[in-house]
Amino acid sequence: xxxxxxxxxxxxxxxxxxxxxxxxxxxxxxxxxxxxxxxxxxxxxxxxxxxxxxxxxxxxxxxxxxxxxxxxxxxxxxxxxxxxxxxxxxxxxxxxxxxxxxxxxxxxxxxxxxxxxxxxxxxxxxxxxxxxxxxxxxxxxxxxxxxxxxxxxxxxxxxxxxxxxxxxxxxxxxxxxxxxxxxxxxxxxxxxxxxxxxxxxxxxxxxxxxxxxxxxxxxxxxxxxxxxxxxxxxxxxxxxxxxxxxxxxxxxxxxxxxxxxxxxxxxxxxxxxxxxxxxxxxxxxxxxxxxxxxxxxxxxxxxxxxxxxxxxxxxxxxxxxxxxxxxxxxxxxxxxxxxxxxxxxxxxxxxxxxxxxxxxxxxxxxxxxxxxxxxxxxxxxxxxxxxxxxxxxxxxxxxxxxxxxxxxxxxxxxxxxxxxxxxxxxxxxxxxxxxxxxxxxxxxxxx
Length: 447
Description:
52% of the residues lie in helices and 18% in strands.
């Protein structure tokens, strides 16, 4: 009878402990099940009392039903929690960015985005310290500093990636409530394209401002040129007349040799000023809406040189021209002049600190097979450092000191040449700095 009472007490305790389902309570009942069955089986085999037999059989049946019922409830709950875990993981994997769970400075979870971005598997992340992928990045330092801040959330921009191929990410870190561990959730969103579009918009804005300035300069230059051309025409005409009158009807000179040279200098200088004014008028006007016309390449190059001839002489730069006079291109001459002038000025800037002989070479050749005309501008400068070559055409990138460059010259020139169905690039395999402008040959129909 005492055993029966103890058995009933144990059954009551197990029943009470499993009224609310839990893994620990279910396991308690499951481990107590063999003990309950064993005691009941012992009573069945060693007791002659019908009441004890009936109670033992009832206890076995009831407790068996109870355990299997609790097992079913536990299974359903476990299956539900597993489904929730799958749904949560699906949400984390669908986020268009990296999701990492960090505990005490070590990874305890990363989603597939992070694994794909780094080329590593979860096994390679598990338990590793933050920052092990890119040791030179500031990520680990930012995480350590964030642990010591009173704020529970931090948002910042950070560059992540292999050296030379870093991308801009928006980093969001959030501290999670925990008893004994430093746990935080880290979200990284790729904003490289956003940054690129912002820079592009800024470049377009700057180009619009520059275009408006050029338009104003063009109007001003037109007025100045008109005012200069009239007296200049008088000077050149009178000097020409005086030169013709230098000899009388008998062919005897009425001027000294020095006077004749002075008249010739006045005449040539007047023509040079007229040429500079014409180049200035062409360069300063907005030519984006001009139609493309067949133009002598030699003439475009010489018009460009007329605007920087004084600077070439002042810096002692030797000019080497190798251009076939018959070469022609379909272009907007003012835009090609702008590109050439920018290239020549860049070459002059790069040679300012060169102590040896300074020279600029402009060569234009025709590739009959490819139906292209290639213009090469070379200089004796120190060349382009390897670490900046990939960024040369990036808007606002410049190596010049503040006030000497905007970082837009090359990017604008590249856009102009591409609008002419051409290519604009540096030949890094050349012995000297070499800029290449590749343009299509005019078709016979365009001629």
